[in-house]
Specification:
7 strands; alpha+beta; two-stranded antiparallel sheet; single chain; three-stranded antiparallel sheet; 8 helices
Length: 212
C-alpha cells in the first residue's frame, strides 16, 4: 500500500498526515495529490475551524473513499466492453462513407445519407474505436433502411448507449422462436426482421441490459 505524506507547518509544530492509497496507484499522480491535499489542509487551518486533526482525518477518509473503485460499476463496464467486442467481431458494419458510396447517386457530403437517416430515427449507429458504425442488417439489398428498424427504434425510445440496442438485436431472444425438428429455438431479432409483431412483443419485455 502506497502512502501519500503531506506536512503542514506552523510556527510551533509540524503535522504529518499519512494517507493510504490503493494498490497500483500511479506514482505520477502523487505530486498533484500532495498539492491538492496541501491546499485543502491550508483552507481548513486558516478557516478558524476547531479540531484540525479531526477534520484532517475526515479529509483522508474522503480522499481514499473517492479513489476506491466501485466494484459493481467496474463489473458492469467490463460486461459492456466484452459485449461490444463480441458484437463488433460477429457483425458486418458499415461507415457513413461506405453507405454514401453504395447509394445509386452518392451525395457530395459523404456523411449523407447516413446522418440524415439517423436524425430521422430510421437507423441507429454505434461508436467503436472513436468511429461510428452501422450494422448491415438495418438495410435492404440496395442499402436503404428497412422500415421495421424505424418502428423498433421508436419503441426503444431515447437510449443513451446505443450498444444496448445493438445487443438487443444481436443476441437470441426467448420471445422470438422458430420451430426445429427437435423443438423450438430462440433467434436473434436481427434474424427476424420480417416478423414485425414478434419484434414488438419482444421489445415490450426487454430488460434494458446489454443482453436480451
Amino acid at each position: 500500500m502506497q502512502k501519500l505524506q503531506q506536512t503542514t507547518k506552523s510556527a510551533d509544530e509540524v503535522l504529518v498526515l499519512d494517507v493510504p492509497l490503493p494498490e497500483g496507484t500511479d506514482p505520477a499522480l502523487l505530486p498533484s495529490l500532495r498539492r491538492g491535499l496541501a491546499r485543502a489542509l491550508d483552507l481548513m487551518v486558516n478557516s478558524g475551524e476547531v479540531a484540525i486533526l479531526e477534520q484532517a482525518d475526515r479529509l483522508a477518509i474522503l480522499l481514499t473513499g473517492i479513489m476506491e473503485p466501485d466494484l459493481g460499476l467496474v463489473e458492469e463496464r467490463l460486461q459492456r466492453m466484452q459485449t461490444i467486442r463480441e458484437i463488433f467481431k460477429a457483425e458486418e458494419w458499415l461507415t457513413a462513407e461506405m453507405l454514401n458510396r453504395l447509394q445509386p447517386e452518392p451525395p457530395s457530403n459523404r456523411s449523407l445519407p447516413a446522418s440524415d437517416w439517423k436524425r430521422r430515427g430510421r437507423i441507429f449507429g454505434v461508436t467503436f474505436g472513436g468511429k461510428e458504425y452501422f450494422p448491415r442488417y438495418e438495410f435492404d439489398a440496395v442499402y436503404q433502411p428497412l422500415s421495421v428498424i424505424k418502428e423498433v427504434l421508436a419503441a426503444f425510445g431515447t437510449v443513451a448507449d446505443t450498444w444496448k440496442i445493438a445487443a438487443w438485436f444481436h443476441y437470441p431472444n426467448g420471445r422470438i422462436v422458430e420451430s426445429r425438428r427437435k423443438g423450438v429455438k430462440a433467434i436473434a431479432p436481427k434474424d427476424a426482421l420480417d416478423r414485425r409483431d414478434d419484434l414488438v412483443k419482444a421489445l415490450e419485455k426487454r430488460t434494458g441490459s446489454y443482453v436480451a
